[in-house]
Specification:
The structure holds 2 protein chains of 2 kinds. Chain A is mainly α. Chain A has 16 helices and no strands. In chain A, helix 3 packs antiparallel against helix 16, helix 7 packs antiparallel against helix 8 and helix 11 runs antiparallel to helix 12. The radius of gyration of chain A is 23 Å and the shape is globular. The two termini of chain A are 42 Å apart. Chain B folds into 2 domains: 61 residues, Helix Hairpins (Orthogonal Bundle), CATH 1.10.287; 212 residues, Cytochrome c oxidase, subunit III, four-helix bundle (Four Helix Bundle (Hemerythrin (Met), subunit A), Up-down Bundle), CATH 1.20.120.80. In chain B, helix 6 runs antiparallel to helix 7, helix 7 runs antiparallel to helix 8 and helix 8 runs antiparallel to helix 9. The chains are: A mainly alpha, B mainly alpha.
Chain lengths: 529, 294
């Protein structure tokens, strides 16, 4: 039956999508799958965001107010897991699916059916994770980092569900990454040489390599947790000769490259948007490529900076401290290049550019606080406080999420064929910008003053700032509903019709296609000048 | 690659199999999650295991259906050279991900031997750990007595493990000869050499089971006898699982070869199977060195 279907495909070159639900279930089209990824990520972003609202509601006042501590722990854990594996990573994969084949002049991803499989695993994996919240004894409550012995000795019955859902998420990520890497290596149109590739493609190539290298290590870590908890092994139990600190080594060997998996594609997006609205080519293209590659390589030898307080020998602490600080060099190159691109450019502040400039400033804040955390002796003060929470939310929310929003505002007209509601978009920007700083900036202060993370109660002295933070949190959450309304309106084609060149300064193959981009593109390879 | 190959891209049609596969993964993960959680509870219902079994069945149906479509499309000449390169690159990256999966366990073995066990014996800055918690603990590898007193015996490399090493190394050579036979167009050499490889694979698995029985019954070496038993069984167990899958993979290739599939130009599936087999062999060599000999 299927071979018949494929012969008919060969006959008609410009057939449209299949009708109804089958289009989405069976699709092999990179644009359909990209759309599925993006919507899934958005739904997960709102789900994880709702959990953050629970956390902020509980922390609005000191004392136990709304939820039980055990439920609070489940919320922090599942919030983290959903945002990392359900929102940020699938959203970037969605963008990769939509844009990479177009950017390199390929007709589709290299392995389109596997592409479908890697998407459809995700809704199932997160169904399992969310279902585990309703198991007797509650869902995972050991933090998204699931440190042993919290996840082995002191965890509930839902741990096995957590382990297997992470396993299938990992399978999905690895297949997605293999697809991206093979597409970029093998499907580039003639003339699309390595150093002509758009930076979004370059950063995703390196990200895909990181994914294939570290997701299997995560699978190993959850497997050891599973056998330690249920099958009597003692990898993380000193009584059997193991070591709980070994869990942290294995986890962060995955976890640190994972951090760059969530930010490198963001660098690619910003490197695409800033030149467009500065009307200048990107400053230092090749240095951007080399900087991305060096960040990726360094990410494999810095993992223990998450573990400075675990009692490692001093020489190890020093090694990881210096390697970590080294990362600020290529990152600094990137920030310098973005600013140099804007220098004396004919800048106009369209919405994608507003988010990109906000990204550059606020991500740099996050980078600086990261540099502070990298200094071993002072990290003993910051470790496990809200300072850490402030740091990684600056790089993940005002970094990764802002870049994803910027990318959506940049390419949404290309996807839908209409310009979105600019008034709503500007409201979304200003509300997000103000509320996100209200939300995360004071966390630096209470963190330095010693407020620990992942605790539902706190000392009375932190009450004022926490109230402000919670107000910022609710405002940031509500601001994202503006975005939801805007995207739905655009998808229903409410807005001015745009031509193929949506932004006058934009370069790249995607702007040679009509808007909306046709269902099949580049069935014959384009000419690259 | 010639210009002609690139002038017309091949995009595969829609397929129902990926979503079937996603359902299979869901059943496996959800079923296994419940089964494992219910292990300690003899009164628990069995629906977790039933879901798991159903999931595995659906997975095999999916694989059979997907590959059947794939083989038909390939044999009707729909696939072009570019797709073949995509498949080859994809397979190599998949093997790389498998290497990283084993690296996690080899890394754990290295950490336990070089750092964790000596530290429990008071090494580095851990004198008090030893003096206060387990003063009688003797750090050594293989760790035949854990800090809490679980005793076991070490598995030597002489005997079954050495025979298994010889078997797998031989099988790497035989599959190479099968590959050469395919390239020369000598189908008799191809099918006979592949058949010998499969027999060697089955023989390896058989001896591995013997070794496990020996470990459990004679040596008292079990999965739960401290980190030595953990690393031994997890590493050899995952390797054995890979040998099983590799043997099945080779068996399917042999059945296709008997039916006259593959030519000296068009044989990606066989190539992938042989790469996978070589990978499994190399993992075993590392295992033999780090788990048994050293």
């Amino acid at each position: 039956m299927n071979s018949v279907a494929s012969t008919t495909t060969q006959d008609t070159d410009d057939h449209g999508p299949a009708k109804g639900i089958k289009r989405w279930l069976f699709t092999t089209n990179h644009k359909d799958i990209g759309t599925l990824y993006l919507w899934f990520a958005f739904i997960m972003f709102l789900t994880g965001g709702a959990m953050a609202m629970v956390i902020r509601a509980e922390l609005f006042q000191p004392g136990l107010q709304i939820v039980e501590p055990h439920f609070f722990n489940q919320m922090t854990t599942v919030h983290g897991l959903i945002m990392v594996f359900g929102a940020v990573m699938p959203a970037f994969t969605g963008l990769a699916n939509w844009m990479i084949p177009i950017m390199i002049g390929a007709p589709d991803m290299a392995l389109p059916r596997m592409n479908n499989l890697s998407f459809w695993i995700l809704p199932f994996a997160f169904t399992i994770l969310l279902a585990s919240l309703f198991v007797e004894g509650g869902g995972p409550a050991f933090g998204w980092t699931f440190y042993a012995p919290l996840s082995t000795t002191y965890s509930g019955d839902s741990t096995a569900l957590f382990v297997f859902s992470v396993h299938i998420m990992g399978i999905s990520s690895i297949m997605g990454a293999i697809n991206v890497i093979v597409t970029i290596c093998n499907m580039r149109a003639p003339g699309m040489t390595w150093m002509k590739m758009p930076l979004f493609v370059w950063t995703w190539l390196i990200t895909a390599f990181l994914l294939i290298a570290v997701m299997p290590v995560l699978a190993g870590a959850v497997t050891m947790v599973l056998t330690d908890k249920y099958f009597g092994t003692s990898f993380f139990d000193a009584a059997g000769g193991g070591d709980p600190v070994m869990f942290q080594h294995i986890f962060w060997f995955f976890g640190h490259p994972e951090v760059y998996i969530m930010i490198l594609p963001a660098f690619g997006i910003i490197s695409t948007i800033v030149p467009t609205f500065s009307r200048k080519p990107l400053f230092g293209y090749s240095s951007m490529v080399y900087a991305t590659a060096s960040i990726a390589l360094l990410s494999f030898i810095v993992w223990a900076h998450h573990m400075f307080t675990t009692g490692m020998p001093v020489y190890a602490e020093l090694f990881f401290m210096y390697c970590t600080m080294l990362i600020s060099v290529p990152t600094g190159v990137k920030v310098f290049n973005w600013v140099a691109t804007m220098w004396r450019g004919a800048i106009s502040y369209e919405v994608p550019m507003m988010f990109s400039v906000a990204f550059i400033v606020l991500f740099t804040f996050g980078g600086f606080s990261g540099l502070m955390l990298a200094i071993t002796p002072v990290d003993f003060q910051y470790h496990d406080t809200y300072f850490v929470v402030a740091h990684f939310h600056y790089v993940l929310v005002t970094g990764a999420i802002f870049s994803l929003i910027a990318a959506t505002y940049y390419w949404l007209p290309k996807w839908t064929g209409v310009m979105y509601d600019l008034v709503l978009a500007k409201w979304h920007f200003w509300c997000s910008l103000i509320s996100v700083n209200l939300l995360f900036f004071p966390m630096h202060f209470i963190g330095l003053a010693g407020m620990p993370r992942r605790i539902p109660d706190y000392s009375i002295q932190f009450a004022g700032w926490n109230q402000l933070i919670s107000i910022g949190g609710f405002a940031f959450g509500l601001s994202q509903l503006i975005f939801l309304v805007l995207v739905i309106k655009a998808c229903r084609k409410r807005g001015a019709v745009v031509n193929h060149q949506v932004w006058d300064g934009a370069k790249g193959l995607e702007w040679q296609l009509p808007s909306p981009a046709p269902y099949h593109t580049f069935e014959k390879p384009p000419k690259i000048e | 690659m010639s210009q002609q190959d690139k002038s017309q891209y091949y995009v595969p049609a829609q397929s129902p199999w990926p979503i079937v596969g996603a359902c299979a993964f869901f059943l496996i993960a959800f079923g296994a999650g419940h089964m494992v959680a219910d292990l300690q509870d003899p009164q628990a219902s069995q629906w977790g295991s039933l879901l798991l079994i159903a999931g595995v069945l659906v997975l095999f149906i999916m694989l059979a259906g997907w590959f059947k479509d794939q083989i038909n499309e390939s044999r009707s000449g729909l696939h072009n050279r570019q797709l073949g390169i995509s498949y080859r690159q994809g397979m190599l990256w998949f093997i790389f991900s498998e290497i990283m999966f084993f690296a996690a366990f080899f890394g754990a073995l290295l950490y336990l031997r070089v750092i964790a066990v000596p530290w429990l014996g008071g090494d580095s800055n851990n004198a008090m750990t030893h003096a206060v918690l387990w003063p009688d603990f003797v750090p050594q590898w293989p760790l035949t007595e854990t800090p809490d007193g679980t005793k076991t015996q070490a598995m030597g490399y002489w005997g079954l493990p050495l025979i298994n090493t010889v078997i797998l190394l031989t099988s790497s050579v035989t599959i190479h000869f099968a590959d050469l036979g395919l390239k020369k167009g000598n189908r008799k050499q191809l099918s006979s050499m592949l058949f010998i490889t499969i027999l060697l694979g089955i023989g390896f698995l058989f001896l591995q089971v013997e070794e496990y029985i020996h470990a459990y019954q004679d040596l008292g070496l079990t999965l739960s006898s401290g980190v030595y038993g953990n690393t031994f069984f997890m590493l050899t167990g995952f390797h054995g699982l890979h040998v099983t899958l590799g043997t099945l993979f080779l068996l399917v290739m042999w059945l296709r070869i008997v039916r006259g599939h593959f030519s000296s130009e068009n044989h990606f599936a066989f190539l992938a199977a042989s790469w996978y087999w070589h990978f499994v062999d190399i993992v075993w060599l590392c295992l033999f060195l780090f788990v048994y000999v050293l």
